[in-house]
Design brief:
about 260 residues; globular; about 70% helix; mainly alpha; single chain
Length: about 260
């Protein structure tokens, strides 16, 4: 298997094992174990499939990994939540009112890039294909998978609720756009906090995966990744510590892939 497939394969084996160490209901433990093992088998089978399948299958691994990891949530750690929120208050005062005077166009832009974060993953792969560098697909997905799944993995231990769930709604301009983003977060996500932030980790990983290949695209992607990072805090989708550790995780994974040549 390629290194990207190794990352996905062993992540699902990790989920199948770690769920037995969490105080989950028996039905949920059976579900996580079964789906994890089936997905690991699917990763192995896909590694024997045509190239086009191997180039796009990682999108499915990330989606399954995200929702399946969310099934490990048992109860929030209130001390950890207080620590994370404490840093937000040290940095921003009251984060629910700190950005109230930011212009509507900026808040709207931040919420839009946050909602569209998932589009960066196929966009990065398409950029490689159209530039004739599909030979870098394994490098690209290794970095992206390791960063995103690496952000999900700590949820099995560090379990917290996102800021929007425990605070008052933030006072922001562009309320209609923010309401749409909030609706998406409340109804299309696992409704728990990933620490580090998966949004931040994967958006920086996409940019870093193209480093040295497409400088213009990398510049645009880095701006988008930075925008997503700001959006996480302004919209109260993540704590500031989540954002910082998400960026650090992407940088660490990038460094490891560079050193190992994967």
């Amino acid at each position: 298997m390629r290194s990207a497939e190794d990352v996905a394969f062993f992540y699902f084996l990790y989920l199948a094992a770690i769920c037995w160490l969490r105080p989950l209901p028996a039905s949920r433990r059976f579900f996580v174990t079964t789906v994890s093992l089936l997905t690991a088998a699917g990763v192995f089978a896909a590694s024997r499939a045509p190239v086009v399948v191997r180039e796009w299958a990682p999108l499915g691994y990330i989606g399954v990994g995200y929702y399946l990891t969310g099934r490990l949530f048992v109860r929030p750690s209130e001390p950890l939540e207080a620590w994370l929120l404490g840093w937000d208050h040290r940095l921003f005062g009251d984060p629910t009112t700190r950005f109230a005077r930011w212009p509507a166009w900026l808040i709207g832009y931040l919420d839009i890039v946050y909602m569209c974060c998932f589009l960066l993953l196929p966009a990065g792969m398409l950029a490689l294909i159209f530039s004739g560098r599909s030979d870098l697909a394994n490098h690209y997905w290794t970095l992206v998978l390791a960063a995103d799944l690496g952000a999900f993995a700590p949820l099995s231990v560090f379990q917290t609720r996102p800021p929007w769930m425990i605070e008052a709604r933030p006072a922001l301009a562009a309320p209609s756009v923010h309401r749409l983003a909030s609706y998406m977060v409340e109804h299309a996500t696992i409704r728990v906090n990933t620490f580090p932030s998966g949004h931040v980790a994967v958006s920086f990983a996409v940019a870093l995966a193209l480093w040295g290949t497409m400088p213009v695209a990398v510049s645009v992607l880095l701006v988008l990744a930075a925008s997503i990072s700001v959006a996480c805090v302004v919209g109260r989708y993540h704590y500031a510590v989540d954002v910082v550790t998400g960026a650090m995780l992407a940088a660490i994974v990038w460094g490891v892939t560079a050193l190992t040549g994967t």
